[in-house]
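Tokens in:
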């Protein structure tokens, strides 16, 4: 079979092998990083005052459950404040929230209409920070719920050398296979982010559960040069803090620090969410990181290409495809097992194989559309 290969086919096989080795090295880095993660210190209350910023838009279905969860935190009321920031809601979110606040340290404000109009969620976070008095800023989302020890667990990761803490986020479990797929796939993203932080290369995190020092936010000029982007209030900020300051970035593994949110109800919502997430990658300031992400995307694209070439050109591509898929599946399963042990104790891996086969085409499609297309977010059409 190899004797029948042309020079072009040999070059393609070598290229696919290079992409596979690059991806396996990436996965190995995640595994090593997970092994380096250490539990934070015993739960303690930092001496700094804390401001929790919760931006919201059209969340009337979720806002009261979120408020109840926030007001149930086992944390001294005089040590923190909660600022809900309304980002031009078109439903009754603002009124419902205002009428049901029971704690004196919780308030709701609205972003002025003409305030950084293209930044969307980021403008709400920034406006909240400008109105906050905390030395530590915590951000989360209005469709989330929390363990009563969430805040103290997350903040226990702070010491004098720590500038940014990323916490775990989990989709609520559901009986439908679509919900199970999302929970597993999302857990994989969180575990990946944790492993990369552990390996000393912070790359991804989720704004539904992060905390950072206000002075560090100011030191890197906050969201400056990013206010034209609708997202990036999480990982782009984390990357700047890691790169431009001497402060450490940590991941909180405490199970009480897990923030839970709803999985997408429809395939369309899932598609729009993943497009939005994929849209951030090309705006990373670290261009070597952008190149690495492009190579990972090309690995996924190469899997489909090999499968097609095995039908059209030569069956040797079926062999290279099979080897790539087996090594990918095996290594990623080991990563999920490690992540389950460290972070998500109840993670269901029974749909792993099915999720893997769905993941390949959706990453290719969402990555392409996220890089070049528009997307919907909170009933807004966001332009690239």
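Residues out:
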């Amino acid at each position: 079979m190899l004797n029948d290969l042309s020079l072009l086919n040999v070059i393609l096989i070598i290229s696919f092998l290079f992409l596979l080795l690059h991806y396996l090295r990436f996965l190995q880095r995640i595994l090593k990083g997970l092994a380096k993660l250490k539990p934070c210190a015993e739960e303690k209350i930092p001496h700094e005052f804390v401001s929790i910023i919760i931006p919201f838009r059209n969340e009337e279905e979720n806002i009261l459950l979120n408020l109840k969860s926030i007001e149930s935190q086992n944390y001294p009321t005089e040590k923190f404040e909660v600022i809900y920031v309304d980002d031009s809601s078109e439903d009754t979110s603002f009124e419902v929230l205002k009428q049901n606040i029971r704690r004196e340290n919780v308030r709701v404000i609205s972003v002025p209409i003409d305030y950084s109009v293209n930044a969307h969620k980021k403008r709400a976070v920034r406006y909240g920070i400008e109105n906050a008095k905390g030395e530590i800023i915590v951000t989360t989302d209005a469709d989330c719920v929390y363990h009563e020890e969430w805040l103290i667990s997350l903040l226990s990761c702070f010491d004098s050398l720590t500038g940014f803490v990323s916490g775990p986020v989990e989709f609520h479990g559901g009986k439908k296979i679509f919900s199970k797929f999302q929970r597993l796939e999302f857990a994989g993203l969180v575990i990946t982010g944790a492993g990369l932080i552990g390996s000393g290369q912070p790359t991804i995190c989720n704004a539904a559960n992060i905390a950072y020092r206000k002075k560090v936010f100011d030191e890197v000029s906050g969201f400056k040069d990013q206010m034209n982007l609708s997202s990036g209030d999480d990982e782009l900020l984390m990357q700047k803090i890691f790169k431009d300051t001497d402060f450490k970035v940590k991941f909180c593994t405490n199970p009480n620090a897990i923030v839970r949110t709803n999985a997408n109800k429809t395939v369309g919502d899932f598609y729009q969410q993943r497009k939005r997430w994929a849209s951030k990658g090309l705006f990373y300031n670290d261009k070597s990181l952008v190149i690495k992400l492009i190579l990972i995307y090309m690995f996924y694209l190469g899997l489909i290409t090999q499968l097609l070439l095995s039908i059209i050109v030569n069956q040797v591509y079926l062999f290279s495809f099979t080897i790539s898929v087996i090594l990918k599946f095996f290594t990623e399963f080991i990563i999920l097992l490690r992540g389950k042990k460290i972070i998500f104790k109840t993670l269901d891996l029974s749909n792993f194989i099915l999720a893997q086969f769905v993941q390949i085409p959706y990453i290719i499609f969402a990555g392409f559309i996220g890089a070049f297309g528009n997307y919907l977010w909170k009933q807004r059409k966001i332009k690239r």
